Amino acid sequence: MDGHISRDAVDEIRSRVNIVDLVSEHVTLKKAGRNFVGLCPFHKEKTPSFTVNADKQIFYCFGCHEGGNAISFVMKINNMTFPDAVTHLARKMGIAIQVREPSPKERKEAGEREKLLRINRMAMEFFSKTLASSRGETARAYLRKRGIDEAVQEKFHLGYAVDEWRELKRFFEDRKAPLPLVEKAGFLVRKDNGDYYDRFRGRIMFPISDLNGNVIAFGGRVLGDGEPKYMNSPETPVYTKGRTLFGLYETRDDIRKKDSVVIVEGYFDFLALWIAGAKHVVASLGTALTRDQVELLKRFTRNVVLIFDPDEAGRSATERGLQLFLEEKMHSRIVILPGGCDPADYAAKFGAEKVGEVIDRSDSMVDYYIDHVIGKKDTLEEHADTVRSAVSFIAGIRDPVERNLFVRRVSERLGIDEGLIKNEIASAPGKSRGPAPVRDDRPRKRAGTVDAVELTLLCLMAERPEKIPLVAEEHILSFFMDPELARLGRVLVEEKPEVSEFVSALPEGEVKEKLLALMVDGAVPGDDLIDRVFSDTIKRIREKWFKMKHRMLKTEIQKAQEAGDTERCTTLLREKESLLKEARKALQAGAASGNAQGDA
Questions:
Q1: What is the pLDDT of residue 107?
Q2: CB 430 within 8 A of CB 445
Q3: Measured between alpha carbons, how far is 186 from 275 in angstroms, rounded to an integer?
Q4: What is the pLDDT of residue 36?
Q5: Which of 178, 212, 269, 556 could form a disulfide with 343 if both were Cys (CB 3.0 to 4.6 A apart)?
Q6: What is the domain partition of the chain in residue ranges?
Q7: Does pTM surpass 0.70?
Q8: Domain 112-239 belongs to what topology?
Q9: Which homologous superfamily does the CATH classification assign to the domain defined by 2-93?
Q10: How far is the C-alpha of 415 from the C-alpha of 386, rounded, in Å?
Q11: 197-206, 385-394, 407-416 — most confident range
């Protein structure tokens, strides 16, 4: 278990907590049939879509798609880690947490992490004091010129690293800090002779914090014309660049209240917008957005405004960001700043009111893609390249409404029939991020879809675990065409977790959203219907697999005939005949099994 908390303690908390009582401390809930509903605490809404199911001890919002169990709710509402949320609930219910003894390796890693965080904190305080001293006057003057006064400097703990080779090294030596550990934290560089020198010199220092407020890294902006202009800490045991966003710790509450986040590239862009009143802002540390960063933002909002620099690198970063937002079902808008300004220059030149206006008037993702990515194409070759690019882009869109909107707009812009574009998308290679399939000859599902029948069987297995042996005996999971759903099915077969425990382990994404929606909103079949429902669902999964496999064989046979490959054609025909026999046998066995259950 995370945080060395015993499994028994977590199970006891899950069994004793009442999710309706817990959620009611934050949300006014009203009874609605089997469920309780209220206004979602995680996004703005006027009509209640936040739903709590007392029987299954789970929640789900049909608006923003957040969902989980009691522990998930505490983690989300309080921005807590799993161990902190468990500890919080344990104290609340008077449960003594049994903590297992960490292994020597875990003790060593935890101890090292604490030391690295302490070194980062000491460095932040050192840089801040230097900025406030007489030695930092040049840096303070530069910051004032950029519109960043002392109050903002203190708010974000800005600092200054003087332009000397061993200033910080001497500071840590005086405090008896192990220099190899200071090097590991990213502040020192070791020379070939074993000596150390400071990594950051002559730079304004920006501390980077995690969601718990721990300083985990730094960014440094050089004073003057030196290169590189910006330098970030290297990755360390406490810092992974692609999983962190600058300023999120300070602005997360504003993001949640606004139910929107503005994303910029750099530290000064962040500060300029924050000073101008856009306090729901984060910075991507000057790199292209990663999936981990997008999933981090999803904890606070699904509405994104992207403002990257207007140069080629900024446009490329914007396009990569769009793809991620689409795949994660985020709603994004793009700001195109006039005159080639970057966000900091624009805020300084036009002021807070104009900044708000340009954010409010930002283009939708569809408009940006149509106007700035597709643009105006003159030649046939440009049209062909654009269609191929658009098909690849649209194939990754998981929301069917967004997908159809894109198809329509691309069709209008390029003058190409919608049906043709949809056919190309349907045949585009999938972008599955799931595990390997259960059987190699399994037909593949299309990208951006979740099989409803397979999903239904998973819900039935989670809610009626006494029926799971039937699934195992008949090897139904080998007929799943969605590898992620097959993996979850194996978890249910092998571990038989309770519903609330099962949903807490689901990875973020469309599968989790659809499973939670189905579990919260769907009724569990009664004893008089469960056998029939199970049997019918299993039968449909088998039939669907055999039909898909039959279509694939038919296509292969046609290709072999057209190529005049008699030997290949004969082999495929035999395989087709064998498949038909297997299908009849499987379906007859399924019918007999269903009748036997009905008789019982």
A1: 72
A2: yes
A3: 30
A4: 94
A5: 269
A6: 2-93, 112-239, 243-369, 375-426, 452-599
A7: no
A8: DNA primase DNAg catalytic core, N-terminal domain (3.90.980)
A9: Zinc finger, CHC2-typedomain (3.90.580.10)
A10: 12
A11: 197-206
